[in-house]
Amino acid sequence: MRKARSIGLSVATALLLATACSAEPDGSPPGGTSGPAAGASGDALGPDEIRTSDNVRLVTNVPPAEPLDGPRSWGTDLAFGGDYAYVGNYDGFTVFDISDPAKPVTVSQVLCPGGQNDISVSGNLLFLSVDDPRSDATCESRLGGDPDEGWEGVRIFDVSDKARPRYVSSVATSCGSHTHSVVPGETGDTLYLYVSSPGPVEPSRTCAPPHNTISIVEVPVGDPTRSRVVAEPRLFPQDQSTTPDTATISGCHDITAYPEKDLAAAACFGDGVLLDISDPVAPKLLQRLRDERNFSIWHSATFDDDASKVVFADELGGGVTSTCDRDTPRTKGANAIYDLKDGTLTLRGYFKIPRDQTPTENCVAHNGSLIPVPGKDLMVQSWYQGGVSIWDFTDADRPVEIGFFERGPIDGDEELGGSWSAYYYNGYIYSSDITKGLDVIEINDPLTDPAKKVRMDGFNVQTQMSYAE
Question: Please, what are the domains in the chain?
Fold first, then answer.
């Protein structure tokens, strides 16, 4: 989600992009847009009414609970380790035992406010991204209004005891941490976090212009209290986009690393970026993309399994507006599918959910993951109030939705709703709904059924692992 902060940008303001550095697409994709729907929406759903395609079912829902059930205790990202799911929340995080996916058990809840608390887990360490200036780094901190005085960055917890997670350390990063990605070091003794954040804020010492960098945090696994920023590489040889209607916005929103391939794909607001991360503390720019006509906010990226394709998502409207209606073009607020060959990305097509949403429903492409079927390119993805979409981009020219889950509009008193993140893990889809809690969803389809045989020991979506046969 795009954050409102004192950089002069409304959350709902679309970023217009500057001249493309690679071939600029016209209004129609080279291969076409999304294919036919897995099922039609029909009439608008009633509040909390659920509709799915025939091959999808809701297994269970775990609603929000104290102390993470306030009016802005919004559910955010997900991470997995063994039989546990870790769910971020603007006010902290929850640890669920998912050894029986039909009956998730709440093991612990940690009250530790800080937007947006995007989450990852590696071994016994848990990391939270904080992108709001706070009075200090602790969980008892207050929201602070002065970015020059407040703390923002990454909090680190020890979750060796799942019932009693323990705060152990923090690292302040330039302009905070909107999201982060775990990149393993050469040995298991060290991890690196690629920290993405928007900026700059003027005047500010902690988020000063220009802000065309990311922060790389080194984490000694045996002593995370010694974690520190070891590099702030500049990704762009020149500044990122500006428009007459918005202040300068730079930095990155999200980075997906694929360590096995020595690659990362970064979504950097006005730019899509391909990186060589063979040296994890000195990433090198391979290619910079712009889509001036169709993309507003480059939000996130996903490689296919063999890294021959990359899907970039556009978060038109910042996640708070309705962009899945019949008046918004199918190439906007959508996914763009690129071929990746010999280190070069080439646009092939776009995908957007084919089910129109009502004008009151915030809906746009958001967080998703691959469904691990060898030889196929399948993905599950959240679309806020557009629900959860399962789609096939094996043929990049003709991507098609193969299943979906969605709820009716949220209550009129709520500000924001829908699925923030939807990921496939060990046979099930787990969706973090902003206001409804944790959904466990199952798809039964000949195309996706082989994925049920794939077992993972853990999963951070922004750190891809191969599942090749």
Answer: 50-459 (2.130.10.10)
